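Morning!

This is the sequence you dropped in the shared folder:
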Amino acid sequence: MLKNLIEEGGSMKGKSAIILDGSQKSALATARSLSARGIKVIAGAEHLTAMTLHSRCVSKSFTYPSPIKKPKLSVSARIIKKLNATFSLFIIKFPML
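The structure's back. Tokens below.
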């Protein structure tokens, strides 16, 4: 969706995005890229020390329980709706099993 809008010259200004897994370098890179395009970035992570949560490119941040340790309390569509984001980006890390 984002790639198509950029390639077609569509405007993303005034939009917002939620990025999860803010401890990942890819989440920080995504936040920077979206912010540079005028998109409001909201970032979430399992730990308050996650680098993306402290980026100047992020307008709001939040922490959430580990989906592996507490699957019933993990981030849900209700949280995304509550934060009022226009669209969401999920950066997923896969734990080594």
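Headline: The chain has three helices and four strands.

More detail when I'm at my desk.
O.
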